[in-house]
User: What shape does this take?
Amino acid sequence: MKFLKGLLSLIVLVLVIGGAAAGVGWVWMQDALNRDGPLTEDVVFHVEPGEGLSSVAVRLEQEGIIRDAKLIRLKAKLENTETDIKTGEFKIERGASMVEVLHTLIEGKGVLYKITLPEGRTTAQLLKVIEADPVLVGDMPEEDIPEGSLLPDTYLFDRGMTRADMVKLMQDKQTELLEDLWPERDPDIPLKTPYEAVILASVVEKETGRVDEQPEIAALFTTRLNRGMRLESDPTIIYGVSRGEPLYNARGQRRTLRRSEIDRKTDWNTYQIDGLPKTPICNPGRGAIEAVLNPPHTEYIFFVADGKGGHLFAKTLAEHNRNVAAYRAYERKEIAKERAPE
Assistant: This one.
């Protein structure tokens, strides 16, 4: 009987000591996991596609972000989050504990990169920007990308995004925008399809970079189309000559349109053809597309650049001719300045 009592006491003692040791171990582990980490400054840590926690933990220790790779793996195992880490780049803050590092890799937002693709650029010009971006990866799409099919904007993306995916994203965003805006269009506009809206918006976009002027110019073009007048837009001539690239003379100097180019009939020259150009002449932004779908009323049917970033509008041809003469004189003066030796 005494033996059994002694054995029971021993078992209880062992359990008490074991429980105490386990408790001490648990307290130690929690302290180690929540203690400030060794980082002395913020860093960006990259988790490769398909990389598992074992590899990530080893690199975290090797790069001086955490002190114990095994311990952070044990933490994830106990919480059943070993397979929950995300791919991408993550900002790890100075002094981050292992708990904070693990939380960042599982729940944190990755570091985002930015690419700005401006309105009014041709597809070829936008594709060059995408191709030159140092963060995007992969080859450019093999298929031809139609003119006007990309929605210009500033896009945020994770490292590892491919160039082909960026192009598709821009196409998808334009499709979504047209699906939202087309049903809300003014029913009286002379545009039969969303594609025609993009064509006219591209002309508006090339005529002015000022968002505040786009509705007025869209209204003016709408009025001309409704009256059976040609658009007579200079950028449509340029697109037919150079596919939207700037015009230069044989000496590499910027030049104005030649009379022979104004008189040349192309599928885009709206001085020589009725209605809209054959295709868009650039990729218009949201503002230009909105403007052509719901233009305000206007009596203006002529306009010309004022040389100061805006335009002069006119209701009569005589008034317009005076404005044109003033602008052509300004244009010749500016080009002469460019060509003058320094």
Summary: The two ends are 113 Å apart (CA to CA). Strands lie at 43-47, 88-92, 112-117, 153-158, 302-305, 311-314.
